[in-house]
Amino acid sequence: AFIHSLDRGQIVRSRVESVTLNVAKELTGKTVDNDQHVPPDHMPDMEEIALKYPAKSENTALERYKSDYALSLAKNKQFWQKRAAELITWDHYPYDENKCDDIMMGGFEFGDIAWFPGAKMNVCANAIDRHVQNGKTHQVAMIWEGDEPGQVLKFTYSELLRKVSAIANALKSQGVKKGDVVTIYMPMIPQLPMTMLACMRLGAVHSVVFAGFSSAALSSRISASKSSIVVTADIGVRAAKVIPLKKIVDEAIVMNDCKDIVKRVLVYERERSIASDDDAVPGDVGLSDNKINWVPNRDVNMNDLLPKQRPYCPPESMDAEDPSFILYTSGSTGQPKGLVHTTAGYAVYAAHTIQTTFDLQPNDIFACMADCGWITGHSYVVYGPLLSGSTTFIFESTPLYPDAGRYWDMVQRHKISLFYTAPTAVRSLIRYGDDVPKKYDLSSLRILGSVGEPINPAAWSWYYEAVGNKKCTIVDTYWQTETGGHILTNLPGVTPMKPGSCALPHYGIDCVVLDSVTGEIVEGDDVEGVLAIRGPWPGMARTCLGDHARYLETYFRPYEGYYFTGDAVRRDKDGYYFITGRVDDVLNVSGHRIGTAEVESALVKHPSVAQAAVVGRPHAIKGEAIVAFATVTESNTEDDDELVKELRALVRGEIGPFASPDIICITPSLPMTRSGKIMRRVLRKISTGEADQLGDVSTLADPSVVDTLIDLIGKHD
Ligand code: PRX
Fold first, then answer.
1. Cβ–Cβ < 8 Å for 188, 396
2. What are the residue boundaries of the AMP-binding enzyme C-terminal domain, all occurrences included (predicted)?
3. Number of neighbours of residue 208 by Cβ within 10 angstroms
4. 557, 558, 559, 563: CA torsion to nearest 10
5. Were both Cys, which of 401, 422, 423, 701 would link to 239 (CB 3.0–4.6 Å)?
6. Which is the closest atom of ligand 1 to the Cα of 477?
7. Which residue's CA is the closest to the ligand 1 atom numbered 21?
8. Which pLDDT score, from 0 to 100, does residue 43 have?
9. Ligand 1 atom closest to Cα of 489?
10. Nearest CA residue ID for atom 15, ligand 1
11. Which pLDDT score, from 0 to 100, does residue 362 have?
12. What is the pLDDT of residues 416-443, one digit of tens each?
């Protein structure tokens, strides 16, 4: 029997304090054992299946994982049936271990995948109500820490139920009903996850847009999803900087066709929202001074509306395959795609992955530093931890505010046990030295997570030694907006760690390496190719909103029969996976996914720009930096420096500040083939200082462009 499920209670865990491991300076390729954790039970109680298909070896936890993993693929439907039955409280569940042939229908050819068809549940009721009903009334569900250290709010499960219910009723009073798309453009105040949960309660589909996106980006997302309700706040505050969110929403609504689409804008006043509880520590009096421009018959003040609402709202019983949320992400075209996730499959997968990857226990304080505007915030700030009945941590500020000790100060004060962040944040802290984390008591930490990009060995060592004191497992979790939850990761107490590697596939996920040209499976170890998945899993996105053809084209047509991740991968001699980068035109800047085509379309909006090409190049902290090249129109009379400034502002305005290029080169020409195609490979090599490895450039229409570009880039280095 090998699963821990909530109702089977705690697993025994040893905390061996004396384990010291020698981490060699160069860690790549070596494994690091971490045996503080007794291997947790990881899989469903599949005793009967296991009896029929006995494990070959039980010598080590890793061997056990391997046989369990093989079993989870061989008996995939039974596996997910068990997980679904254990993790979710269903309103209706027509499956059991003897009847689960129909638990998944459809496949990759048509993208008509359905998991648990006919079953019914509500995600919000699973994340809150059932814990209240199971006696967790007084357990803290959410800890919020605001921009200023010590500005803290805590909500028990029963408080959360009242708050979320009131928001759901407020939404209802404004006409929101099952199936409606609600756009949420909010700062990381508690009302952001609460509004997401309120939508889930009503069966409304939330579309959270990260509050760092510009008005133009917000507008295109509202327009594409035909979202008649937008929920926002007057302002956001990050590192003491005020972001005028309501003003940005107002700007967004006058663009595209949003004026006709948006019927209601529901506005939280940040200061009233975070001071509405008795235990609130007022910290930012005066920040809300900027007046809200209330638009009559459209804008509604949530802080006035909420006290009028009944603090209980019955949850809507949803079909397993009803859409639960949309999340926009970047692809290789200029148009972001709205990935649609489901109700039950997503919930099963978020709960399953957080519990196995992080060995999450009900008394854990789980702190994921992501913003709710990204998939990591959806799965591991909101849904994963709450579906598991643990305590989740919501952080409004940045790792460097007010100083580089912010994360560790919070770990110490809140006794955080599981901590999850991106390598870019770790790298930004390393330069302040080991002394910073040493000042704090970090002994509550058990597991450290990494997500969003490969973690380089130097960052890994620092995270492991300076933060984890060589006692915490680092889980390197690889996944995507599309996958809903972790796909590849090491597991604490099970998989020896290998710095820089996201280790091995998660249970139930059939990962394969494909030859990028032939599409054939590359067998064996010590191989390279592209990463693909050979079969549906419950947490995968089911379609792109309003464009199912694009969903098929992007994920299932490149390699027939497989889900294509878009990532290149190496599998080393031990079978460990190393992600080596995207193979499409998608960049990963500070863990944010940005399409080169999106930045290019922003640049060519400038009347002086004739053509633009964008590539990525390695950056010590951000992982990747954006390098843009632009040619100007004949009529352009602008000075280059002035133009560069305007182009930066343009990208900030079209996408958001996080997409602003690090380098913009105004060039007389771009490397074009004779047939008129831009050779990005040449731009990439020149940007990374590898102009000596340009390869074959005989197809270039004008080879002299290479020297011009080398000179231009040289001026920026
Ligand atoms: O390239 C991979 C990289 O991030 C991409 C997915 O980005 P997004 O949908 O924004 O989701 C980010 C958070 C899950 C992937 O295609 N990526 C994500 N995690 C890792 C990673 N690359 C290497 N190692 C990881 N652990």
1. yes
2. 598-677
3. 29
4. -70
5. 401
6. 26
7. 453
8. 55
9. 26
10. 480
11. 81
12. 999 999 999 999 999 999 999 999 999 9
Closest CA to 371 of 452, 302, 290: 452
Chain mean position to CA 562: 22
Mean pLDDT score, 608-628: 95
Q: Give the residue, by CA position, lying nearest to ligand 1 atom 22.
A: 453
587 Cβ closer than 6 Å to some ligand 1 atom: no
Question: Does residue 566's CB lie within 6 angstroms of at least one atom of ligand 1?
Answer: yes
φ, ψ at 614 (rounded to 5°)? -125, 135
Q: How far is the CA of 170 from the centre of ligand 1 (A)?
A: 36
Q: For 326-363, what is each residue's pLDDT tens digit? A: 999 998 888 889 999 999 999 999 999 999 999 999 88
* The pLDDT of residue 708 is above 70: yes
CB 212 within 8 A of CB 658: yes
| 8 A C-beta contact, residue 381 and residue 193 | yes
DSSP β-bridge partners for residue 613: 629
Tens-digit pLDDT profile for residues 93-118: 999 989 999 999 999 999 999 999 99
Q: Which residue has the tokens 């460097």?
A: 400
Ligand 1 pocket: which of 349, 421, 593, 598 to mutate (most atoms within 8 A of CB): 593
Average pLDDT, integer, range 208-214: 97
Q: Are 626 and 616 in contact (CB under 8 A)?
A: yes
Q: Is 602 in the pocket of ligand 1 (CB under 6 A)?
A: no
